[in-house]
Amino acid sequence: MAGWLLVMSAMAVGCSKPPPPADNVILLGLDAATWDVLDPLMTRGLLPNLQKLRATGTTAPLQSTQPSSSPVIWTSIATGKTPEKHGISSFVRFPTGDAGKPSPVSRTLRQGKAFWNILGEHGRDVAIVGWFVTWPVEAVNGRMVSDRAHWGAIDEKGVFPPNYLFDLAVPTMDDARAAVPKFMSYDFVPGDLLADSSDPAQRLNYLVFDRFVRAYMRDLYYVRAAERILQDGPLPRVLALYLRGTDDVQHGFWKFMEPQWFADVPPEQVEHFGKVIERYWQWTDEQIGKVLSYYEGTTPLVLVVSDHGAGPAVGQYKINVPEYLHLSGAHRDKGVLIASGPGVREGKAIDRASIYDITPTLLWYLGLPVGADMDGKVLTNLFTPVFAQRPMSTIPTYDDPEQKPTAQTESKVDDQALEHLRSLGYID
Fold first, then answer.
1. CA–CA distance, 15 with 37 (Å, rounded to integer)
2. Residue ranges making up the domain that contains 97
3. Which residues contact 418 (CB under 8 A, 6 or more apart)?
4. What is the Cα–Cα distance from 148 to 299, expressed in whole angstroms?
5. 155 falls in which pLDDT band (50, 70, 90)?
6. Residue 145 is inside which H or E element, if any?
7. pTM confidence score
8. Is 66 exposed, middle or buried (0-12, 13-18, 19+ CB in 10 A)?
9. d(Cα 383, Cα 186) in Å, to the nearest integer?
10. pLDDT 10s digits, 197-240
11. Which of 205, 131, 148, 218 is nearest to 176 (CA)?
12. CATH number of the domain within which 230 lies
């Protein structure tokens, strides 16, 4: 009897017609997300939106690469390729050959197509918001808000179509100062920002500015941009929203969250800053809820991905920088993946996935061939057996051999971007 049931079950699977994919896809890039932080917060009920996605979908640790450089990894996620193929290898380039004059890496150095180019060429409209290395913007089938738009660079290179969102105000210091009490019990003074001061109070004030205020203002801008796009006509077929603040706060505030890993963290500082990472994740979860609310009445495929994980900057992960840079959190090589939506297995987990797998899986899910030159694989084990039967085809490459990367492109906000990278310890 048991054998007969197995045969009948196999026949039923074999004869079932795979369901169609979701009409809409939401790709949420959350920098430095780690199960080490998310698991306890979900258990406590503090991240209801992410928890719901997890409960209704399939999860995995997402294997990253070393060295852990965010622009490199987010470009790998967007292309399915290694940096040797896509050409983005660091935070900066040196266009003049002078090691003392770096320039933040620009999109014009990318080789080959990202998923938004491929989807657009196949008639899918896209909205790409804040994704790393998207400045200057490309002419996409939809809308793109580059990763430098939050600096106020709203021009023909910052947003596509040109002049789109020109009236979207960049968050101000007043916005950030009003938010500070929700995240910490500290009296932040915007005018007192001497990074390497000998005064511990000034250094703490700079910590709040550099690791919280900048992160919050950036993320708030891109959330508002995404909401404007979602309010503006039909929902895009594919929305990709990247939020970076979860990485900035973990770098700055880990020692207050887990003081046991560090020597001599004053108890009063733990009291002031010990909940910043937790509360920033709660705020991020709320923003995810806002985005998902626009899809009420629909059933989108939602993918949550991170470029790497995070943990305390101790032992082999210790970062040797001046104390005033406040780098008590460091990267780990495993991030997170959550998939939820039509065709996805419910309440399951898989053992492994890679940053290179996201674009191949997205293309296959939407019924398009996978590039044979992509380094990732299709994660069919995220999906039900019936859905995983959907045809899989390949194309040698989506790239045009005649289309070559151009020279590094400077922007009006290069100096601001470089100063922030230095403050984060990413460049000397």
1. 42
2. 20-423
3. 92, 102, 103, 104, 427
4. 31
5. confident
6. strand 142-145
7. 0.92
8. exposed
9. 46
10. 788 888 899 999 999 999 999 999 999 999 999 999 899 999 99
11. 218
12. 3.40.720.10
